[in-house]
Predict the structure.
Amino acid sequence: MSFSSVLIQFLNGLASASSLFLVAAGLSLIFGVTRVVNFAHGSLYMLGMYFAVWLSERVGFWTAVPLAAAVVGFLGLLIELGLLRRIYKAPELLQLLATFALLLIIKDAALWAWGAEDLLGPRAPGLAAAVEISGGAFPQYDLLLIVLGPLVLVFLHLLLTQTRWGLLVRAATEDREMAGALGVNQRWLFSSVFALGALLAGLGGALQIPREPANLNVDLTVISDAFVIVVVGGLGSIPGAFLAALLIAQVKAFCIGLGFSKATLVVEFIVMAAVLVIRPRGLLGREATIPRGPGAEEPPLRPLSPLLLRALAALLAALVLLPLASDGYVLVLLTDVLIFALFAASLHFILGPARLHSFGHAAYFGLGAYAAGILYLQAKLPMELALALAPLAAGLGALVFGWFCVRLSGVYCAMLTLAFAQIAWSAAFQWDGLTGGSNGLVGVWPAAWLASKTMYFYLSLLACALAIALLWRAVHSPFGYALRAGRDSPLRAEALGIDVRATQWAAFSIAGLAAGIAGALYAFSKGSISPEAMGIPRSVDGLVMVMLGGIHTLTGSVWGAALFTWLQDAAARNVDYWRAAIGVSILVIVILLPRGLATLVQKRA
């Protein structure tokens, strides 16, 4: 590369870093004070883009940008007052579930208001041209963004260090309980912090409309980037977020400049994985003390009672007889329910007994699915042998990734699982020769004797029921008790001679193997596999299933999977804005039944 090309790519990286910092700074600020992992932060960014485009047609670009940011900030205040105040003391995963429901609602609200088509924003008046820098052309507007990022950093630094409000924010960040004991009105402090974080997200989105169109898919892309930057920089650290944004943006820019544009899909996650392995708390992060209220207690998982065992036996008998009185569609839906029940049970195996938070469990579901397809289509193995061997690929992937993940905890562990999942997704998305790339694999059909919906339903019922039963048995085996000992008191467990990390690593691998079984069954049930099988939405679906049923019960993940799969199917077929319908249903359950449906049934029983 010539000096001119290097300089242009460096400036492109600076412009992108400023844009990423604006949204990441808001997320970091919110987490630093409220300890809420806000999955809907990307939706606020998306709203900033849509409002800016809509307002630009009426009041002009330069007025529309701050006005759109203010509107999004006000919406953030309403969200905090109406929802988040109710879940501040809830476990992190429940907060994630609630904010994911918000993401679904906001996405359909934007679809209703602005339609499904991308909206193009105007050029920035006065900055629509390009300037010549070292023989190359560079947009004037990007020069503004380069300056704006450091200005926002300085503004936030002065706000947090030179004002009374900033002093209270820093006090709440260090010790929320002590700040409350000293008379700090934490409710309004949290509200103001969330509103400011939302405003920054809206500003970041509004400033992007001269560079890219507003669209409904930007929310997940942006929240993924923001999570990476916040975690690499260190949770709650504004300077860390700025440093991480510079690092990520420059690495992406030079990947493009050197001709490795495909690497931009995964390079940020590779950077995050490397940083977390070397510095588990991020570049400038510190250990976060997260208060755990009554909703976060970990009661022991009860063994299945004789009454519940009889109920499960009756359910299995009913499922065996069901094909005699049902049509093909019901069997297809129930096959999906069984597969996702196993997927959710495998995730619960590490979430509940081990408290290993995973945001990337779909990686192992996808590895099992792709391994089944590759063995069947390219290795020409019989369907039965491909189905039997495919889960081993998922187990091997979990064995490798888990070795790194179990060395972290909490949000950092969750984000490292997300990084590895995105690396696996990127490989599936771009490896055209092996995985079919973005088109996936087609023609993955079961053997002739399993071709009917009834026979494949019976196969799925047998495989999933057996795998779930083995997972439940493992929870109440000496291995499961060792897992729970390491979860509840790692120091005591180590003193008793339990190798906590080795036990968690084994659990992680077993969960990946079980998810691989579900993925292999899914591949042959659908006849095709696409990269969506291991994408972020699939991982979030698994978390939703577990939390809906109840993480503190053994069978909750199964009921949650059945409810979520049925709700998703029914809403998609009968409701125009089905995502919003699912989001509202999730919010109702989160607020009224924070421990899940199975816990309520268990108490009533």
Summary: Residues 3-34 form the longest helix (32 residues). DSSP finds 25 helices and four strands in the chain. Strands lie at 130-133, 136-139, 441-442, 528-529.
